[in-house]
Amino acid sequence: xxxxxxxxxxxxxxxxxxxxxxxxxxxxxxxxxxxxxxxxxxxxxxxxxxxxxxxxxxxxxxxxxxxxxxxxxxxxxxxxxxxxxxxxxxxxxxxxxxxxxxxxxxxxxxxxxxxxxxxxxxxxxxxxxxxxxxxxxxxxxxxxxxxxxxxxxxxxxxxxxxxxxxxxxxxxxxxxxxxxxxxxxxxxxxxxxxxxxxxxxxxxxxxxxxxx
Length: 212
Fold this sequence. Notes:
Blueprint: E1 8-11, E2 15-19, H1 25-32, H2 35-40, H3 49-65, E3 70-76, E4 82-92, E5 97-104, H4 113-127, E6 133-139, H5 143-151, E7 155-169, E8 175-187, E9 205-207
Parallel strand pairs: 5-6
Antiparallel strand pairs: 1-2, 1-9, 2-3, 3-4, 4-5, 6-8, 7-8
Domain N-acetyltransferase: 15-172
Pfam families: Acetyltransf_3
Keywords: Transferase
Protein backbone atom coordinates (compact mmCIF):
# COMPACT_ATOMS: atom_id res chain seq x y z
CA UNK A 1 0.00 0.00 0.00
CA UNK A 2 1.23 3.48 -0.85
CA UNK A 3 2.73 5.18 2.18
CA UNK A 4 4.29 8.30 0.64
CA UNK A 5 3.14 10.91 -1.84
CA UNK A 6 4.92 10.84 -5.21
CA UNK A 7 6.77 13.81 -6.60
CA UNK A 8 4.06 15.49 -8.65
CA UNK A 9 3.22 18.49 -10.78
CA UNK A 10 -0.46 19.43 -11.09
CA UNK A 11 -1.68 21.79 -13.81
CA UNK A 12 -4.86 23.89 -13.89
CA UNK A 13 -5.95 26.58 -16.33
CA UNK A 14 -3.85 29.23 -14.60
CA UNK A 15 -1.57 27.43 -12.17
CA UNK A 16 1.12 24.80 -11.84
CA UNK A 17 1.57 23.10 -8.47
CA UNK A 18 5.01 21.55 -8.09
CA UNK A 19 7.60 20.70 -5.43
CA UNK A 20 9.30 23.66 -3.81
CA UNK A 21 12.70 24.50 -5.32
CA UNK A 22 15.68 26.47 -4.02
CA UNK A 23 14.92 29.21 -6.56
CA UNK A 24 11.73 29.82 -4.55
CA UNK A 25 13.68 30.91 -1.43
CA UNK A 26 13.36 34.72 -1.82
CA UNK A 27 9.67 34.66 -2.76
CA UNK A 28 8.83 32.09 -0.08
CA UNK A 29 10.54 34.18 2.60
CA UNK A 30 8.73 37.33 1.43
CA UNK A 31 5.38 35.54 1.45
CA UNK A 32 5.86 34.16 4.95
CA UNK A 33 6.69 37.61 6.33
CA UNK A 34 3.28 38.96 5.31
CA UNK A 35 1.06 40.24 8.14
CA UNK A 36 -1.83 37.88 7.37
CA UNK A 37 0.45 34.85 7.19
CA UNK A 38 2.02 35.83 10.50
CA UNK A 39 -1.41 36.26 12.10
CA UNK A 40 -2.84 32.86 11.11
CA UNK A 41 0.16 30.52 11.02
CA UNK A 42 2.92 29.50 13.40
CA UNK A 43 5.84 30.33 11.11
CA UNK A 44 8.58 32.17 13.02
CA UNK A 45 8.75 35.93 12.58
CA UNK A 46 10.70 37.36 10.94
CA UNK A 47 10.91 34.46 8.47
CA UNK A 48 14.41 34.48 7.01
CA UNK A 49 15.70 33.18 3.70
CA UNK A 50 17.72 30.67 5.74
CA UNK A 51 14.46 29.36 7.20
CA UNK A 52 12.92 29.20 3.73
CA UNK A 53 15.89 27.24 2.42
CA UNK A 54 15.71 24.80 5.34
CA UNK A 55 12.00 24.27 4.67
CA UNK A 56 12.65 23.54 1.00
CA UNK A 57 15.76 21.38 1.32
CA UNK A 58 15.21 19.66 4.67
CA UNK A 59 11.72 19.84 6.17
CA UNK A 60 9.57 19.29 3.06
CA UNK A 61 11.57 16.32 1.72
CA UNK A 62 11.65 14.72 5.18
CA UNK A 63 7.87 15.04 5.61
CA UNK A 64 7.27 13.51 2.20
CA UNK A 65 9.77 10.65 2.71
CA UNK A 66 8.23 9.82 6.09
CA UNK A 67 4.79 9.67 4.51
CA UNK A 68 3.38 12.45 6.68
CA UNK A 69 2.66 15.03 4.02
CA UNK A 70 3.55 17.01 0.92
CA UNK A 71 4.36 20.68 0.29
CA UNK A 72 3.62 22.11 -3.14
CA UNK A 73 4.58 25.48 -4.57
CA UNK A 74 1.68 27.21 -6.33
CA UNK A 75 2.95 29.07 -9.39
CA UNK A 76 1.34 31.01 -12.21
CA UNK A 77 1.37 29.08 -15.45
CA UNK A 78 2.28 32.07 -17.62
CA UNK A 79 4.79 33.87 -15.40
CA UNK A 80 6.08 30.97 -13.25
CA UNK A 81 5.82 33.38 -10.32
CA UNK A 82 5.35 31.81 -6.88
CA UNK A 83 1.88 32.79 -5.67
CA UNK A 84 1.31 30.39 -2.78
CA UNK A 85 1.82 27.05 -1.08
CA UNK A 86 -0.48 24.07 -0.57
CA UNK A 87 0.47 21.80 2.33
CA UNK A 88 -0.68 18.29 3.18
CA UNK A 89 0.03 17.05 6.70
CA UNK A 90 -0.97 14.44 9.28
CA UNK A 91 -1.60 11.94 6.52
CA UNK A 92 -3.08 8.61 7.63
CA UNK A 93 -2.55 6.02 4.91
CA UNK A 94 -4.71 3.41 6.66
CA UNK A 95 -7.70 5.75 6.95
CA UNK A 96 -6.75 7.32 3.58
CA UNK A 97 -7.02 10.87 4.89
CA UNK A 98 -4.89 14.00 5.07
CA UNK A 99 -5.11 17.58 6.32
CA UNK A 100 -4.80 20.38 3.78
CA UNK A 101 -3.82 24.01 4.30
CA UNK A 102 -3.01 26.80 1.87
CA UNK A 103 -1.23 30.14 1.89
CA UNK A 104 -1.51 32.74 -0.86
CA UNK A 105 1.08 35.48 -1.26
CA UNK A 106 -0.09 39.06 -0.70
CA UNK A 107 0.82 39.93 -4.29
CA UNK A 108 -1.59 37.29 -5.64
CA UNK A 109 -4.68 37.60 -3.45
CA UNK A 110 -8.11 38.26 -4.89
CA UNK A 111 -7.51 36.08 -7.97
CA UNK A 112 -9.17 32.90 -6.70
CA UNK A 113 -5.85 31.06 -6.63
CA UNK A 114 -6.41 29.44 -3.24
CA UNK A 115 -9.62 27.68 -4.26
CA UNK A 116 -8.22 26.73 -7.67
CA UNK A 117 -5.10 25.19 -6.12
CA UNK A 118 -6.96 23.50 -3.26
CA UNK A 119 -9.57 21.96 -5.54
CA UNK A 120 -6.94 20.73 -7.99
CA UNK A 121 -5.04 19.11 -5.12
CA UNK A 122 -8.20 17.50 -3.75
CA UNK A 123 -9.11 16.08 -7.16
CA UNK A 124 -5.63 14.59 -7.44
CA UNK A 125 -5.82 13.15 -3.91
CA UNK A 126 -9.18 11.50 -4.52
CA UNK A 127 -8.45 10.36 -8.06
CA UNK A 128 -4.78 9.44 -8.27
CA UNK A 129 -4.01 8.75 -4.61
CA UNK A 130 -7.37 7.13 -3.75
CA UNK A 131 -7.77 9.13 -0.55
CA UNK A 132 -11.21 9.19 1.05
CA UNK A 133 -11.09 12.31 3.23
CA UNK A 134 -9.41 15.72 3.21
CA UNK A 135 -9.67 17.79 6.38
CA UNK A 136 -9.19 21.54 6.75
CA UNK A 137 -8.98 23.59 9.93
CA UNK A 138 -9.55 27.33 9.84
CA UNK A 139 -9.24 29.80 12.69
CA UNK A 140 -12.62 31.14 13.78
CA UNK A 141 -11.88 34.68 12.54
CA UNK A 142 -10.05 33.71 9.36
CA UNK A 143 -12.97 34.37 7.03
CA UNK A 144 -10.85 34.30 3.86
CA UNK A 145 -9.75 30.73 4.54
CA UNK A 146 -13.31 29.73 5.40
CA UNK A 147 -14.57 31.13 2.11
CA UNK A 148 -12.08 28.96 0.24
CA UNK A 149 -13.24 25.88 2.14
CA UNK A 150 -16.85 26.63 1.26
CA UNK A 151 -16.05 27.38 -2.38
CA UNK A 152 -14.41 24.00 -2.99
CA UNK A 153 -17.32 22.12 -1.41
CA UNK A 154 -16.15 21.44 2.14
CA UNK A 155 -18.66 20.56 4.83
CA UNK A 156 -18.46 22.32 8.20
CA UNK A 157 -18.18 19.57 10.81
CA UNK A 158 -18.03 21.70 13.93
CA UNK A 159 -15.77 23.64 16.26
CA UNK A 160 -12.71 22.69 18.27
CA UNK A 161 -13.04 25.17 21.11
CA UNK A 162 -9.96 27.13 22.16
CA UNK A 163 -7.76 24.83 20.04
CA UNK A 164 -6.03 27.41 17.82
CA UNK A 165 -3.23 29.88 18.50
CA UNK A 166 -3.46 33.04 16.39
CA UNK A 167 -1.23 36.10 16.62
CA UNK A 168 -1.85 39.84 16.98
CA UNK A 169 0.46 42.82 16.88
CA UNK A 170 1.59 44.35 20.17
CA UNK A 171 2.10 48.07 20.78
CA UNK A 172 5.86 47.68 20.39
CA UNK A 173 5.46 46.10 16.96
CA UNK A 174 5.99 42.51 18.04
CA UNK A 175 3.54 39.62 18.11
CA UNK A 176 1.61 37.99 20.92
CA UNK A 177 -0.40 34.76 21.00
CA UNK A 178 -4.18 34.74 21.34
CA UNK A 179 -6.36 31.66 21.72
CA UNK A 180 -9.31 31.09 19.45
CA UNK A 181 -11.42 28.26 18.04
CA UNK A 182 -10.76 26.01 15.07
CA UNK A 183 -13.55 25.36 12.59
CA UNK A 184 -13.19 21.84 11.18
CA UNK A 185 -14.12 21.17 7.56
CA UNK A 186 -14.10 17.94 5.60
CA UNK A 187 -14.07 17.15 1.92
CA UNK A 188 -15.04 13.73 0.56
CA UNK A 189 -14.84 12.56 -3.06
CA UNK A 190 -18.56 13.13 -3.60
CA UNK A 191 -18.38 16.70 -2.24
CA UNK A 192 -16.29 18.19 -5.03
CA UNK A 193 -18.80 17.61 -7.80
CA UNK A 194 -20.03 21.07 -8.76
CA UNK A 195 -17.45 22.91 -6.66
CA UNK A 196 -16.82 26.48 -7.83
CA UNK A 197 -13.04 26.37 -8.03
CA UNK A 198 -11.26 25.72 -11.30
CA UNK A 199 -10.98 21.94 -11.83
CA UNK A 200 -7.70 20.31 -12.53
CA UNK A 201 -7.04 19.10 -16.04
CA UNK A 202 -7.57 15.33 -15.84
CA UNK A 203 -4.38 14.91 -17.85
CA UNK A 204 -2.52 17.52 -15.80
CA UNK A 205 -0.77 15.20 -13.35
CA UNK A 206 2.91 14.93 -14.17
CA UNK A 207 5.53 12.87 -12.35
CA UNK A 208 8.24 15.07 -10.86
CA UNK A 209 11.41 13.03 -10.46
CA UNK A 210 13.75 15.69 -9.09
CA UNK A 211 12.11 16.24 -5.68
CA UNK A 212 15.43 16.34 -3.85
